Amino acid sequence: MKIAIIGTGISGLSLANILKDKHEVVLFEKEQRQGGLIKCDIIDSVLFHKVGGHVFNSKNKEVADWFWSHFNQDSEFLEVTRNAKILFRDQIIGYPIENYIYNFDKSTIDTIIDELLLLQHKEKQSWQNYPNFELFLENTFGKTLYELYFKPYNNKIWKVDLSTVPMSWLEGKLPMPNLKEIIVSNITRQEEKSMVHSTFFYPKVGGSQFIVDRLSQDLDIRTGSDITHIEKINNQYTIDKQIGFDSVVYCGDIRKMPDYLEKTLDGKVDLKEIQNLRSNGTSNLLCETDDNDISWLYIPEEFTSAHRIIYTGNFSPANNGDKQRKTCVVEFSGKMQYEDMISEIKKLPGNLSPIKYNYEQNSYIIHNFETKKLIDQTKKILKEENIHLLGRFAEWEYYNMDKCIEAALNLAKTL
Ligand SMILES: Cc1cc2nc3c(=O)[nH]c(=O)nc-3n(C[C@H](O)[C@H](O)[C@H](O)COP(=O)(O)OP(=O)(O)OC[C@H]3O[C@@H](n4cnc5c(N)ncnc54)[C@H](O)[C@@H]3O)c2cc1C
């Protein structure tokens, strides 16, 4: 088959590599460079993850096997132990917070333990059965931990009322501790090991740009092609004057789907609902920092609008270039003015000094209670036309890179 892939983030690049030996694949990318969210720049010899600080890990063997068939784990990647921390009441404490309750004052510890014990007597329900994210958190961790940590931290990132967030959005992302685990962790003071990223892999050189560059080899990529128009002639598709595609995979933002898709869906799904899906952008400030051994520092409290520092300089020494100090990325949800970020970093630990700023308009997708049904319906209708949605913004799923690869592997099977 001749297959067009619109969008060259990790989703489009992965799918193209899966298909390229058996099919003719052409990729279209609106930007001048492929890579989407995982692109990196070199600024002043330092590696800048323009969005976040992408690390790789997967619990799915098929995904891991596929990934490592393209990279040499030993010679090209570092295996880094996650050392996440939380900045809380001027202290840097461990993550996840429920395993570090011993850091709080006695009366807070008493209240949290009382609440956790009370929750023990409540009938347990599985996470899917909670009506919303707020109730899940309150009933899993108790009201005090919710108010002190989970609510302010999540509000900072999502900027949304957590009672309007459906559980389906967060599948596979949720911590599921039980009381015994919490008590044992607080006594033994051991790290929770079942987190998604207890260790992760990171390229020795080049960050996630290394992944983009490798996966782009031997592909037919047309950069600078913003696809707004798709034409169907005799059961084949024409895209950007290229004719004869049997199948189209769209990896862009579902709210901005090309005209043809809109026409196909009109009257069958609520297009307005799709166009009104909500997402958040992210502002990132690359900084120099004093030395530490942290991978991520979460910042729930309201004294600053920054919600996380990603110590990318600790992921690989090469990321620090020829700087004397280490580097990190300070993350803010939404669009921040440069001057505001500069005043915010003065409140943060590490004597941060700024190097470069980036704003990404689309980084976090937000679901409402109708979203999953709407997207499933949309996918089904498009599939009948040999058009497929793939990736974080096309499928409107809270995917990490590994989930994008998993979705690409699954889609390739159906193609
Ligand atoms: C702050 C942050 C931190 C993260 N950290 C991690 C992490 O540590 N590990 C991890 O695994 N994942 C992480 N993720 C998730 C990861 O970034 C995404 O899952 C992944 O990059 C999404 O890839 P994608 O290909 O689906 O979408 P994108 O990367 O958005 O790619 C879509 C591409 O399509 C192009 N495009 C769109 N419309 C058109 C059009 N009409 N015509 C042509 N081209 C078009 C875009 O320009 C873009 O290049 C993080 C995400 C964020 C926001």
Walkthrough of the structure:
It is globular, with a radius of gyration of 22 Å. The chain has a seven-stranded mixed beta sheet, with helices on both faces. It has a five-stranded parallel beta sheet with strand order 9-2-1-13-19. It has a three-stranded antiparallel beta sheet with strand order 10-11-12. Among the domains are: 2-36 and 209-277 and 366-414, FAD/NAD(P)-binding domain (3-Layer(bba) Sandwich), CATH 3.50.50; 98-190, no CATH class. A hairpin with a 2-residue loop joins strand 3 (40-43) and strand 4 (46-49). The chain is an alpha/beta fold and 415 residues long. It has 14 helices and 19 strands. It binds flavin-adenine dinucleotide. The site of flavin-adenine dinucleotide has 36 residues, from helix 1, strand 18 and helix 14.
CATH class of the domain at 2-36 and 209-277 and 366-414: Alpha Beta
Alpha plus pi helix count: 14
Strand order of the largest sheet: 7-6-15-16-17-14-18
Distance between the termini: 9 Å
User: How would you sum up the global shape?
Assistant: globular
Q: Say what the CATH topology of the domain at 2-36 and 209-277 and 366-414 is.
A: FAD/NAD(P)-binding domain
Helix content: 25-40%
Strand element count: 19
